[in-house]
Amino acid sequence: MHILISAQSYPSPKNQLSAFVAVLAEEMVRQGMNVIVLAPQSLTTCWKHRIPLCPQKYKVKINTSEGLREMTILRPFSFTLGQGRFYKLSIRIDRFIINRTAKKIKIKPDIIYSHFWKAADNILDFAVKNGISSFVATGEDEITIDQYLNAHRINTLKEYIKGVICVSTKNLEESIAHHLTERSKTIVLPNAVNPKEFYHIGKKVAREKLGYPQDDFIVAFCGRFNTRKGCRRVSDAISLLNDPHIKSIFIGITSGGIYEEPECDGILFKGSLNHSEIVTYLNAADVFVLPTQAEGCSNAIIEAMACGLPIISSNLPFNYDILNESNAILVDPMNIQQIADAIIEIKSNSEVQLKKSKASLEKAKQLSIENRVSNILKFIKTQLLESN
Q1: 10 Å Cβ neighbour count for 30?
Q2: DSSP string over 349-375
Q3: pTM score > 0.85 for this model?
Q4: Which residues contact 32 (CB under 8 A, 6 or more apart)?
Q5: Are strands 67-74 and 57-64 parallel, antiparallel or unpaired?
Q6: Plot region of 177 (φ>0 → left; ψ -120 to 50 → alpha; else → beta)
Q7: What are the tens digits of pLDDT across the range 14-47?
């Protein structure tokens, strides 16, 4: 089966945003699919954040059980004109560039798989014109597509999209509420982790590798350094505890949202890492804290669980499919005292820490990328059969 993945972005060595798209695409190749990824790269965004441009077309070699296979990545240049009055112009530019690039693909795809509703809208005209069955994965922290599309365009999306893969029940309910789909076309499959990239090493080994102290309690955060993700709320909670034996790791980037930098004593690391490096830093920690205000389903949380970390995160619906009292402490993400109390609960009770650590590892086993892609492909085949 030939699958064209339409995405809003794709990771590069200098820009790890949307790493989960690459993880999914590569697993599709390992499961026998022929995959082309089409993801524009904004010239204005790259210039603003000093991100090196990628080639507009290149191939990635992937190890599979049948040997090396190639996946084609298409990164046409586009422009981003901000979220203000020119945003609709940005949408039209993206549509034009995506559809022009798709027309040049030599082999017509059997399926179009779009990452998020905007990517589905970008490729919609090409899909409809060529009669290609389309699916969308919805994982947005907040679905806003109905704010800039007219009713006719939304109805076309709803009628033409054959299936919607939702990363959480929250995303499913939101997609239905925005009149983008109906329940019979949906499935909930939380985000997943590649167990070859994120796995339990052991705290002692990881700390020796990084040169971190063995006796201190280490809090880990991974996400964008912005208000929504809550890195400053984590550092404020640590400052509130005023314990010299509590150290911290802040892994993140500065793009997206209102920027804020974590500030507290005892920061062992602060900054961005290549995706492959994160596993060692997570394994060096005692707990993972992400008091995020909005998510689809957090990849960072699942990666932390795969490393055996207890989780402190938000008591909000986007977490309910992957977190519960067995592996997490759920708090009001805006309440710094609650975050601090949860950190102390984990630090002061080794039995609680161990139980939640084991539960995280067990839950992560269920959330492997191999299982998720297998279930996605089964869902696609089922929906195609039912629609014929």
Answers
A1: 16
A2: -HHHHHHHHHHHHHHHHHTBHHHHHHH
A3: yes
A4: 1
A5: antiparallel
A6: alpha
A7: 666 678 899 999 999 999 999 999 999 988 888 8
